[in-house]
Amino acid sequence: MKALLIYLRNYKKETVLAPLFKLLEASFELLVPLVMAAVIDNGIANGDKPYVIRMCLIMVALGVIGLVCSITAQYFSAKAATGFATELRKALFSHIQNLSFSKMDTIGTSTLITRMTSDVNQVQSGVNLVLRLFLRSPFIVVGAMVMAFTVDVKGALVFVVAIPLLSVVVFGIMLVTMPLYKKVQADLDAVLLATRENLTGARVIRAFNKEKSEIQNFEKNNQALTDAQKYVGKLSGLMNPLTYIIVNGALIVLIYVGAVRVDTGIITQGEVVALINYMSQILVELVKLANLIITVTKAIACGNRIQSVFEEKAGIPEGDLDGSGLLKETAENDDEPFIEFDHVFMRYEGAGADSLSDISFCVKRGQTIGIIGGTGSGKSSVVNLIPRFYDVSAGQLRIGGKDVKEYKLSELRKNIGVVPQRAVLFKGTVADNLRWGREEASEEELWEAAETAQAKEFIEGKPEGLGFKISQDGKNLSGGQRQRLTIARALVRRPQILILDDSASALDFATDAKLRAAIRRMKGSPAVFIVSQRASSIMYADQILVLDDGEMAGLGTHEELLENCGIYQEIYYSQFAKDAKTSGKEAR
């Protein structure tokens, strides 16, 4: 939690002024019982009305000045807390964006959302209350005890006993509840996960008639959260009654001692009232402090959860090579391998075995590589290594003759166009989505990419054209339209490496064939990786990599693999009749 306080660095003035004005307010508040004692002993006792009026005006002035100080402190503390939360959220979001896929898989999406929202809000509330009350409440508690000693030493001894007892109660409950609030936030993660899965998978749930079981599952998670909140709430709720018991017990003793000492003439009635007022001030401030402790306990638990995310290293160390210049230089030499997988192994974080084992092949500039295999054979894992979404565990992956780890990530990835398996679009216009590929792309370049991706026709069919508004996640488009737009988005980048990760699964065979033909005619001759479970999508590739359980089962052309690769034969003939065998050369 302490490490997060760095995000208050731009609000140093506010973090000093807020508690300072609160201390000023507290100082004026501590003077009020003395003025009241003077009113009783000097004004009322002597029947001096002008004196009473003067003292009352002084009390009003103290109240007004205290109010101004309080409002000023509230302003500075709110400004510092909201600014701190803004800086923290920005830094946390930036850090999450730099986490490797492995780290994000390990932490989990739902808990990251909770830490970006609920946890940051709790920390913001904690900072706000700390700036306002953390110094004020202890200052009044200690100050009231000191002022009590100036009134009557023997009466003030009641304070000496009461305050340590109160401290034991407050801090004891804080130590017990802090880990429990951390568990409450973890239970909130589970509720968020269930909610997120149900909202995103609503159609699937209804299609399989699983509403009742999902409601029961949600109720179970929600009840666990409720029970945890009730339990920690009960413990936190003990703070107020226990502090009231101690303070009111101290008040009884104080009134008794005060009555005896007034009767013997040692102190005046006004001084007894002052002592009681100081004890009442302590009671009020300890109630505030109790609430502060509860909020701060939550904030510390949430802050530690946020800090644990920051402690997760990005996982992908960057090199310092300028990738764009090096890759263009390599592109001019077609005889040299452009991309080389040299005995590559890859294992996901926390996995018990390698997902890829001993993968070796080379790709030249302008070549098309098809990757095919059964479900879970490692097809996506191979192409995810190229833009360094994941890193190799052993072996080496080279692009342009250099290890891929030597490039700056930004330079490497701006030369790669990736079309993922799931077509993801963002709320905005078609043009906005396509310019994710390259912000400065002209309208003509957008249309060119759309034409290559076979998306031009349906975009022109929209009255707004490139200005057509896409809803969140592209819900107002069909699956094929979403896939074509994601392909166009990658093509706008004019990549030197184009990765199509099973990105034509929603396209019909004719559109798929037109897409592949258009990509072959693209300017710049990028190296193209086509991941597919359709033999028809990759059969005309320059090379086809066949994978089986993370290992290479074959590498060659369509004709070569039909002759000597049993797994490729099995896949091909499951999709085409044996008597329909046609060589790639004849088909062309």
Task: Give a brief outline of the structure.
With 588 residues, this protein is an alpha/beta fold. Helices cover 63% and strands 10% of the residues. The chain folds into three domains: 2-310, ABC transporter type 1, transmembrane domain (ABC transporter transmembrane region fold), CATH 1.20.1560.10; 316-415 and 497-503 and 527-588, P-loop containing nucleotide triphosphate hydrolases (Rossmann fold); 419-494, P-loop containing nucleotide triphosphate hydrolases (Rossmann fold).
Could you characterize what this model shows?
By secondary structure, the chain is α/β, with parallel strands linked by helices. The chain has a six-stranded mixed beta sheet. Strands 2-1-4-5 form a four-stranded antiparallel beta sheet, with no helix packed on it. The chain has helices at 12-44, 49-98, 101-107, 109-134, 136-151, 153-200, 202-207, 211-237, 239-263, 269-310, 323-331, 379-384, 409-413, 430-434, 443-452, 456-460, 479-492, 509-520, 535-538, 558-564, 566-575, 584-587, and strands spanning 339-346, 356-363, 368-373, 394-399, 402-403, 416-419, 428-429, 469-470, 497-501, 527-531, 543-548, 551-556. It has three domains: 2-310, ABC transporter transmembrane region fold, CATH 1.20.1560; 316-415 and 497-503 and 527-588, P-loop containing nucleotide triphosphate hydrolases (Rossmann fold, 3-Layer(aba) Sandwich), CATH 3.40.50.300; 419-494, Rossmann fold (3-Layer(aba) Sandwich). The longest helix is centred in the first third of the chain and has 50 residues, at 49-98. The chain is built from 22 helices and twelve strands. The protein starts with 11 loop residues before the first helix and ends with a helix.
